[in-house]
Structure formats: structure tokens, C-alpha cells
Design brief:
The chain is of the alpha+beta class. About 45% of the residues lie in helices and about 15% in strands.
Length: about 700
């Protein structure tokens, strides 16, 4: 199977592996009937599964095929007499699913479970029988793929089936591999169903299974599913795209000539490489057409360069960029920074002297296998060094114990966490689709050295719930890359985040947090808390109150003297200068002199409008007036504690303003009369030491 061409008959060059092996596309209807009607020797594999065995041996030459024979015979016997809606014997379906996985390189346990994946659901075979015959691993996978009973769940059967499948995938990703192959074969044969049912199945495939295939890296399945969904849900656009591809087939394709030039360049450089032309699949052509309008001849495919080692990839890139004109904006290095679905490659685009622009993908053969098959290419990701050779089940493994996810994902772990908090099937179904719609992932670092995987666009709120769970209800702030920021701030890949939690156990989230939460876990937790605390929820959404102001009884006089006789002097409120600040004075309307700190922005404005400058000096007296801004996290008794700290320094409060809390952050403004300007640094330190205060600065 090819990740680039859905229609192998239209693009035979897209399936070089089939050309090398000399296999043609299988007639599964004929094989199914042969399985039912033809005799089978007890000492050899049945003819109907011979093609599966051939594909399997191509990837696993030493695999023991006897277990496949036993699984096939059980499946064929169990499904005997059952027919698909297309009129084919039912056994053709598990055979087709198993063949898809065999060509992707799945190991024997996966193929065994694939042959049996419908037996428990549609026949009298039980899970206990599967365990007795094939072991716990196969039993666990078959159970994971088996649908829940509609008679028990009613309309919630489909969401609950996917929930069950995803939980099983958390322990064994091979469950989802079989489900994807199962859906692919069902989509291939969907034409016998009513149009409305076709559309319903196609929408679920688009919203859930295609994103899952993308996250598991199984591009070979994802691209064909995309084309099949495209044909059902957008038939007019599909026909236009097919017409574009058909018209291009009759024209001269520049890509083969460019591929020959690339081969020549690499051969002369001494780099051993295989160069292929990879046709784009239908949806890819459609997207390019929407992006560029008129298509060029080189837009219908890409050039793939396969090499042996990682270093060879960069050597190829250097030769391409030396011998052709690179399109710099198209370069992406997914080797140094792999995608979150295991994908690795170098992407670039080069222009030829003839004016053609070709996209080029460079990867090793192992990267290519993973790019096509994703987690399927991992074989048995749970086998230990002491377990049997590749292709045989690990009988010692316990499929029910929690195991490390081999796809290094944040997405699957997040999904498994939040689904536990979504008991309502409708909530689970809608949130699942929203989660899977996130097509990129970022990694942020915790202050203690751990990491968090989050969807692109996630905020500090999402990081708080990912790290602390329900304890994040008390989150009152965050530092990102060492700087204090609001909880609504979006995070970028590679950021370091430190989350600050309130000591008050009664703290809770604000309703506004829902506007900035991107992950289902955060949204579900916030919504649940707000529903449980309706009074607190309403309090956070009421209109902002006016700032609280406290005015002292005494007004202060300026202790600055201007070199302008009899002119009144005022200290500017924008910068509140105090001795021994360097200052500048300007004559304003009414003849008064306003004094600013020399670096105040108002100084440049005064000079720009032609205000008269006046020399200013400080009196010998040491007292002064200053305005300080204190920023803090909201908590009970904070204003009282700050006022007490100011009073202990012997400072008089002339006026104070407290702004209403924003995301539990409070801003205080104090105009203070100091007996001695030299005491200002000590006063600011004392205010910073008040619990909850994170910054004190001059206005």
C-alpha cells in the first residue's frame, strides 16, 4: 500500500513494493468463495490466506505461520454461511483486513487478532476460547476491537465502543491498528449501503478515525481513508479533482526528468540513494488546487529520496541545494524535530533551470517504513528482550498491566485522562472530536524538569490542569520562561512554565478560564467546578467594580525648587520623582512648573511641543512623596497586610487605589509621604515581602 496514491491502478508506479514482488491486487471475493468451497490440506496454509502469508514473510522471514493457519481456520469455520451486504462470503472481510496489515508489516500477533476480530462479536466464539487457543495478547486485542452491545447502550453504543477501544489502545496500540484497517476495508465496500448511511459512516471516519490514523503515523491508511471520505462527502469536488488528475495523465510530466537529474547529481556525489516519483493522492491534489489555483505539472507528485543513514539525508540536502535553486520557505527538518506521530523526513523544494518547482522528501528506508506504517512498523512494541523473536506473541506479557505508550504521546495520555471525567456519552463524543481536531502538538518544560505534551494553542490554564489535575482550581498565576504572565497566555513549543497555586483551599477557577482552555481535561474540570459552585461562578462573571480608593487627610507639598521666582512647583504624577532622582522642570499653563524624572516619557513630549525648560533642584529637607504600584495575587487580608507593612516603615499613606481582581491578580496604587527619601528601597523590599505580592515598582 502507498501513502501517496489511493488508486494503484491509476498510479502503478506508486506501489513499487508490489511491482518488485510481482503481486497484483487480490480478488477477495474469489478467495472467499475458494475458502468456502475448495479443499484445504491439513498440513499447509489454505489457499485463501496464502497471500497474507506471502506479505507477512516479506517483512518477517522467520515468522511462524502455523498460528495464522489455526486463526484462519477458526475464523472461516465460525463465519461459514455468513454473507456481507455486498454478497461476498463474510470471511473475505477479516482476510482483507489482515492482508492490509500484513502489507504494512504487522507482526504475527496482530495478524492473528485481525483474522479473529469479528468472531466474538458476530459468532459463537467466546473470549475465553480465544485465550485458550491463542493466549492473553490476542484475547486482549480482540476484546478491544469488539463493539459493545447496542441492545445495552442504545444510541450511546457507538461513542461507548470508541471509548472502550481507546482505553484498550492506551495499553496496546495494536487495537487501533486493526480498527483502522477494518474501517478502510469497510469504506472500500461502502457502495452497497444507502447514501445516508454512507454519509454517516464517512463523517465518523473523517472526524475520528482519520485523525487517529494521523496520530498513530499510519499514513498509508490515512491517505486512502481521506480519498474515500472525500468521494462520499464531496462528490463534485472529487470528480473535479479526478478530472484534473486524468487530464494531467495525458500531458508531459516534468517530475520523471527532474528525478533523473536528482539521480545523476547524487551518483556523481557518491551518495547511494533510491529516487522515486510519488503521485499525490486525491485530497492532496485538491488541497494544492485550492492553495495555488492553477496547477503546475510538478504539483501532481513529489520526489522521494531514500538513503541508508541519517547523515546521508543531510548530504542529499546539501547536493540538492547546491545543484538546484532551493525554495527556502519550503524547507522543514522533521529529522531533528520529529512530528508527534513518529514521522521523520527532510522536506524541501527546488527549482530547475527550466522553471519547474518540485517538492522533495528525503528520508532513510527505516524512516520511510515508519512514515508509511506508523506504529504498525514497530512490530510488537511491548515485547521484552527475553520474549520470543519478532513475529511471535509474548506469552509472558500481561496485557492488563499499564504499559508505556510507544508513540511517546501526550495526546493519548491526555485522552485517556479526560475520558474518565466525561461519563456522559454525548460529552465524550463531542469532546473527542474537538480533541482530535487539534493537528499539532507542543512540548513545554516544567520548572522541576519534567515535560508536558499539549495541543498547539494551549494556554497556562491547560498546563495547570495537565500537571496538577483538580488541584489546578487554585492556580493564581504562572511564570513562563522566568517572567510572570497571566493564566490565559498561550504557550509555545519549548517554553518553561512554573505554575503558582494559592494556599487557600477554597480557591476556584473563574468562568473566563473556559475562554482560554483548549484541552478537554481543563474544560471538563472547570465546567464541573462551576456547576458545583454556582454562586462562585456567578460572582466571577459580574460586572467589574470600580477601583477602591482611600484618600488620606493630608496633602503633600513638593520639596523641589525651580529656578523661576514665585512659580508654584508640582511633582508629576506620571513618574513621582523623589530625591535624589535626576529631574527636569517644564512651565505649563498657568505658570506652574511640573517636575519629571529625566527618563520619563513626558520629558520628550514636553520638549517636542516647545515647553519652556526650567532648572530644578531638591530642597535640603529629606521628606518626599512617591507613588508605588504593587502587583499581587488576590487573597483575604492582603490590603491590611500591605498597609501594616507600610506603617512599620514609618510611612504615611496619602491615598490608595485597589483595582478589581483580574484572573485573581490585584493591582494596588499607593501615594505615600516618606520622612526620608533614603528609606524608599527598604520600603519597597518590605512591601515585596508581604505574602502574595510579586512586584513593587514606582509609578
Amino acid at each position: 500500500m502507498s501513502a501517496e496514491a489511493t488508486n494503484p491502478e491509476a498510479h502503478p508506479e506508486a506501489r513499487p513494493e508490489l511491482r518488485r514482488r510481482g503481486r497484483t491486487r487480490l480478488d477477495l471475493r474469489r478467495l472467499g468463495r475458494a475458502a468456502l468451497l475448495g479443499p484445504t490440506s491439513r498440513d499447509r496454509l489454505p489457499d485463501a490466506i496464502g497471500h497474507v502469508a506471502e506479505a507477512h514473510r516479506a517483512h518477517h522471514p522467520d515468522a511462524d505461520l502455523s498460528v495464522l493457519r489455526r486463526a484462519y481456520l477458526l475464523a472461516e469455520t465460525s463465519h461459514r454461511g455468513q454473507m456481507r451486504k455486498s454478497g461476498e462470503p463474510y470471511i473475505t472481510h477479516p482476510l482483507a483486513v489482515t492482508l492490509i496489515l500484513a502489507e504494512l508489516g504487522a507482526e504475527t500477533t496482530t495478524l492473528t487478532a485481525s483474522l479473529l476480530h469479528d468472531t466474538v462479536e458476530d459468532t459463537d466464539v467466546t473470549l475465553d476460547q480465544v485465550r485458550e487457543e491463542f493466549g492473553d495478547e490476542v484475547r486482549f486485542i480482540v476484546d478491544g476491537v469488539t463493539k459493545v452491545e447496542k441492545i445495552d447502550y442504545g444510541a450511546a453504543a457507538e461513542p461507548e465502543t470508541f471509548r472502550k477501544m481507546l482505553v484498550a489502545t492506551g495499553n496496546d496500540v495494536r487495537v487501533m491498528s486493526i480498527k483502522l484497517a477494518d474501517r478502510l476495508h469497510n469504506m472500500r465496500t461502502l457502495g452497497v449501503m444507502r447514501p445516508e448511511k454512507q454519509a454517516r459512516i464517512a463523517k465518523v471516519t473523517r472526524d475520528v478515525l482519520i485523525p487517529l490514523a494521523e496520530r498513530l503515523g499510519v499514513q498509508a491508511l490515512k491517505t486512502e481513508l481521506e480519498d474515500l471520505v472525500f468521494a462520499i462527502l464531496h462528490p463534485e469536488e472529487y470528480e473535479r479533482t479526478r478530472a484534473l488528475i486524468a487530464a494531467h495523465a495525458g500531458e508531459r510530466d516534468p517530475l520523471p526528468a527532474i528525478a533523473d537529474s536528482v539521480r545523476t547529481v547524487l551518483r556523481e556525489a557518491g551518495i547511494t540513494a533510491e529516487v522515486q516519483v510519488r503521485p499525490r493522492h486525491f485530497v492532496s491534489v485538491h488541497r494544492i488546487a485550492l492553495k495555488r489555483g492553477e496547477l503546475r505539472g510538478s504539483d501532481f507528485g513529489r520526489i522521494l529520496v531514500l538513503v541508508g543513514e541519517n547523515a546521508d539525508c543531510y548530504a542529499v540536502l546539501g547536493e540538492l541545494h547546491t545543484c538546484f535553486t532551493p525554495v527556502v520557505s519550503e524547507f522543514k527538518d522533521f529529522i531533528a524535530t520529529p512530528k508527534f506521530n513518529l514521522y521523520q523526513s527532510l522536506h524541501t523544494a527546488v527549482a530547475t533551470p527550466q522553471g519547474h518547482v518540485a517538492e522533495v522528501i528525503v528520508r532513510t528506508r527505516q524512516m520511510h517504513r515508519v512514515a508509511e506504517a506508523g506504529v504498525v512498523a514497530l512490530g510488537n512494541p511491548y515485547a521484552t528482550a527475553s520474549s520470543a523473536t519478532a513475529g511471535t506473541p509474548d506469552a509472558a506479557a500481561d496485557p492488563y498491566e499499564e504499559r508505556v505508550d510507544p508513540t511517546r504521546p501526550g495526546w493519548l495520555s491526555r485522552l485517556l485522562d479526560w475520558q474518565q471525567s466525561a461519563p456522559d456519552p454525548d460529552t465524550f463524543w463531542s469532546v473527542l472530536r474537538a480533541e482530535l481536531a487539534q493537528d499539532r502538538e507542543i512540548t513545554v518544560f516544567q520548572a522541576d524538569g519534567g515535560t508536558l505534551g499539549l495541543p498547539a494553542g494551549a494556554s497556562c490554564i491547560d498546563a495547570a490542569y495537565a500537571q496538577h489535575g483538580e488541584a489546578a482550581h487554585g492556580c493564581i498565576g504562572a511564570r513562563v520562561n522566568g517572567r510572570l504572565t497571566s493564566l490565559s497566555s498561550p504557550l509555545s513549543d519549548g517554553d518553561t512554565v512554573q505554575l503558582l497555586l494559592a494556599q487557600d483551599a477554597s480557591s476556584g477557577p473563574a468562568a473566563e478560564w473556559l475562554d482560554h482552555a483548549r484541552t478537554p481535561a481543563a474544560r471538563i474540570a472547570i465546567s464541573s467546578w462551576l456547576e458545583a459552585h454556582p454562586d462562585r461562578a456567578m460572582a466571577t462573571t459580574t460586572a467589574a467594580r470600580a477601583p477602591l480608593s482611600v484618600i488620606g487627610a493630608r496633602g503633600g507639598g513638593a520639596n523641589a525648587v525651580a529656578d523661576l521666582p514665585n512659580a508654584p512647583v508640582r511633582l508629576a504624577g506620571c513618574c513621582t520623582p523623589v530625591p535624589p532622582d535626576a529631574v527636569a522642570g517644564f512651565v505649563v499653563r498657568g505658570g506652574a512648573v511640573t517636575v519629571h524624572r529625566i527618563h520619563c516619557a513626558a520629558v520628550a513630549q514636553m520638549r517636542a511641543v516647545g515647553r519652556t525648560s526650567v532648572a530644578v533642584h531638591w530642597r535640603a529637607t529629606a521628606d518626599c512623596r512617591v507613588t508605588l504600584l504593587a502587583e499581587s495575587f488576590g487573597r483575604p487580608h492582603l490590603l491590611a497586610d500591605l498597609t501594616e507593612a507600610i506603617a512599620r516603615e514609618g510611612v504615611e499613606v496619602v491615598s490608595a487605589t485597589v483595582e478589581p481582581p483580574v484572573e485573581q491578580r490585584v493591582r494596588h496604587s499607593y501615594t505615600l509621604q516618606l520622612p526620608d527619601a533614603a528609606g524608599l528601597p527598604a520600603l519597597m523590599r518590605a512591601m515585596r515581602n508581604v505574602p502574595g505580592v510579586y512586584d513593587v515598582s514606582r509609578a
